[in-house]
Amino acid sequence: MRKGFLRVTTVLLVVLAIGLVSIAFWGHGQIAGSLPLLDGKRRLRNLSAEVTIERDRLGIPTIHAANRLDLAKATGFLHAQDRFFQMDLLRRNSAGELSALVGPTQIAADKKVRVHRFREAARRVLAAGSDEDRAIVDAYASGVNAGLACLPVKPFEYLLLGLEPEPWKSEDSSLVMFSMFLDLQESDFRDEARLGLMHDVLPEPLFEFLAPRGTEWDAPVEGEAFAVPATPGPEVFDTHRSTDVALLAPPGSLTWAESGHLGSNNWAVGGARTADGRALVADDMHLGFSVPHIWYRASFVWQDAGEKHQMTGLSLPGTPAIIVGSNGHVAWAFTNSEGDWVDVVIVEVDPNDPDSYRTPDGMRKFERFQEKIEVKGAADETLEVVSTIWGPVIDHDQHKRPRAWRWVAHDTEGVNLNSLRLESAPDLETALRIANQSGAPAQNFVVGDDRGRIAWTIMGRIPKRVGFDGRLPSSWADGSHRWEGYLSPEEYPRIINPEGGRLWTANARVVSGEMLAKLGDGGYDLGARAQQIRDDLRALATMSEADMLKIQLDDRAVFLARWQKLLLETLSPEATSGNPDRAELRKHVENWGERADKASIGFRAVRAFRNRLLAQVSDVLVSPCKAFDPTFSISGLDRTEGPVWRLVSERPEHLIDPRYKDWNSVLLAAVDQVLEDATTKGKLADYTWGAYNTTRIQHPLSKAVPALARWLDMPQQALSGDTDNIPRIQAPTRGASQRMAVSPGHEADGYMHMPCGQSGHPLSPHYRDGHRAWAEGLPTPFMPGPTVHTLVLVRSEDLTPE
Q: Which residues pair with 790 in a beta bridge?
């Protein structure tokens, strides 16, 4: 009987296996049906002429079109075929519509974003645009929907989710741009609010000390470093008298959070700094990683008034433009500017009418909007958005006063398609003016032209502040604090052909004086990264594209050198005597290699030591703020480095954590916390930087269903580099979203690479094929290579394939 049972079981298992294989083949066939078209001909409605799309071995397209509208339509077609799900997530992210796609897990995220009512703002942006811009956006949307319709099977993500993709609307391109605003500027409100609480609660000298305007790491192109204010004396603040120990986090429980700001590097060198008089522009933009990757490489070729144009670089799926690249005459690159594009407005509520608030024109009623949030698999939810003339009410301060968010992104001037004009800009001056008139998250715009000239300015709208500098929350009720529109291009800060022939930006302060006053301070980066790039550039008399890549991959830990020295001093003979763990740590720190190398134990230890001290020391000094907000922290504010280094160097007794007898005890406690972290789950020998700095580049679906990770995600790799403060930015989930260097007019000599690949389809050969070059820092040609596939889009009055 047992043998019979085994035979039946075997038969059942075989049948089950055959069934599973059949399902797998069926599923594979279904998923393969959504692969993008690479060759042949397809009819497209409302083309004015035939469009040819040539792809190289990496799937990078060169689109040949008769005019800009046909080009926009073909770009939309390609984006939809390769990346529609990504585009859908981007528009839903800023519209607060993710719950309708994936269910209740995203309700909180949708509510957080929906207060901005970006869907309504996108419609206003579209209506305010020029006829030419609307025509391009409409053509792009038409191409997106045509590309989607030409797929035999809907994109595989919708097969797995059991949903139908919703058509693309012209307004959705603005929503994609709003997603970039959220990525690059959303933390600004929180940071200004934190500064506001510190300013209100702490003594003024202590506030200025902990929130310095700059540090010794500043490396502006124009101006000098700002000094950290003097250390406050015991008459200002004494931790033994002014600290409620009960409010402090337990020793060892804190570590320093990584900066909330996403960074980038760019620079340019003029003709005097290259062997043949060319300008060179380099860029590596640092963003969060995902699969598929944020950028889509492309080369556009089209005619305009009988003149041929070619633009090559990175496009953003969901929009019809090349974001960064070169048009043969000018090349440009971006970093997030970290100027002040957000203000926190304290709203004065009428004490006799809680539904009214004070404005320069008298009392006014709050506006209230009922936002319906659709939820897949659950009941819809309604969010009430309360808004003022300045923007939506986001939260309340420590005095229970409402706070509104004034943001460039809320204005129709904040988003537009003016950057499209860069594609045909003939020279430096034209490019600068276009950048100043473009509506986008404000960026450091570094540009070079084919005459060897270079320049810097801001791309994005700069508000005209009146009566205040925007650093802290304030009331705008009496009109003395306000925005009066936006600067004209003639008023924008600019640097053209600087002495020395070098420009650099890395999210830190670029200028000083009047130019800085126009930009404000939205949380500039510490400046160590900019300083190292500046010094790398100054070390070279003449430069080439190969030199640009070396600087982008520079992982020398210059910034942490003084912390390494402090850690060695702390691990003195007395401290290590009789303590083998400390003695072993000292050996690793002595031989740390001076780089953010994936194999280094010492680098990771030095870095952790610094982060522990930043968290511990600052937590004590902001403890009065915890009486109003028990979770309060300045963790992640970059320039805290300056005051904390001053404290661990000077070691004033009146500013020590009162739970420790002396500063040496504070430092040794940080050492032991590092050792505890390093040995809790293994040995100190396993505490390499690469064990932490291992990439996790995931598809959104694998985050929800880990079983899909092997199929959808990029391989996990330990990489050198750090999260900030050195040129080679590399973290597990964010880092260089691309690296490029190009000389306008000499694009064939340039390079470009990015994570992942062109396609968002896991069965495509171009899903991962660009990843190795990015991970290993290998140059890939800036221009697409020889044609491997050719797709022709043919004029038609319907979408029926030939």
A: 54
Largest CA distance in the chain: 94
CB 312 within 8 A of CB 298: yes
Helix/strand number for the chain, H first, E second: 25, 28
Q: Which helix (H) or strand (E) holds 30?
A: helix 2-32
**Helix or strand or coil: residue 416?**
coil
Percent of the chain, pLDDT > 90? 89
- Tokens representing 114 are 């929906």
What sign has the CA pseudo-torsion 240, 246, 250, 254?
negative
Contact 279, 458 (CB under 8 A): no
Spell out the residues 6+ positions from residue 204 whose beta carbon is closer than 8 angstroms to its own: none
**Which residues, in sequence order, are bridge partners of residue 381?**
373
Place of tokens 């391109």: 173
d(CA 331, CA 316): 17
Q: Which amino acid is at 99?
A: S
Residues in the chain: 802
Q: DSSP secondary structure string, 329-382?
A: SEEEEEEE-----EEEEEP-EETTEEEEEEETTEEEEPEEEEEEE--TTS--EE
Distance separating alpha carbons of residues 629 and 169, to the nearest angstrom: 43
Query: Residue 28 has what pLDDT?
Result: 63
Which of 95 and 246 is assigned the larger pLDDT?
Answer: 95
Question: What's the pLDDT tens digit per position in 621-669?
Answer: 999 999 999 999 998 888 999 999 999 999 999 999 999 999 999 999 9
Give strand pairing partners of 356: 365
- CA pair distance 337, 522, nearest whole angstrom: 9
pLDDT at 561 over 70: yes
Average pLDDT for 567-571: 98
Calculate mean pLDDT across residues 99-122.
Answer: 96
Give the pLDDT confidence of 439-492 residue by residue, as tens digits. Answer: 999 999 999 999 999 999 999 999 999 999 999 999 999 999 999 999 999 999
Mean pLDDT of the chain: 94
Q: pLDDT tier at 262 (50, 70, 90 boundaries)?
A: low
AA identity, residue 282: A
Evaluate whether 328 touches 747 at the Cβ level (below 8 Å): yes
Integer angstrom CA distances of residue 780 from 177, 641, 770, 775: 28, 37, 9, 12
pLDDT at position 261 is: 59
Residue with the bigger pLDDT between 404 and 252: it is 404
Residue 797: the pLDDT is 58
Q: Which two tokens stand for residue 179?
A: 């997603």
Residue 221, both tokens = 């192109």
As a whole number of angstroms, the distance between CA 642 and CA 380 comes to 49
Whether the bond between 212 and the residue before it is cis, its omega within 30 degrees of 0, is: no
**Which pair of structure tokens corresponds to residue 435?**
């950048």
∠ CA 300-305-309, rounded to 5°: 25
Six-digit token string for 313: 């670089």
- State how far the Cα of 643 lies from the Cα of 198, in Å rounded to an integer: 15
Q: Which residues contact 341 (CB under 8 A, 6 or more apart)?
A: 185, 188, 407, 408, 409, 441, 442, 460, 463, 520, 522
Are the C-beta atoms of residues 312 and 322 closer than 8 Å to each other? yes
Tokens of 743: 């000389």
Instruction: Give the residues across from 741 on adjacent strands.
Output: 282, 751
Q: How far apart are CA 758 and CA 291, in angstroms?
A: 10
DSSP 793: E
DSSP 143-210: HHHHHHHTSSS--HHHHHHT-PPPPP-TTHHHHHHHHHHHHHHTHHHHHHHHHHHHHHHS-HHHHHHH
Reduced to 3 states (helix: H, G, I; strand: E, B; else coil), residue 569 is helix
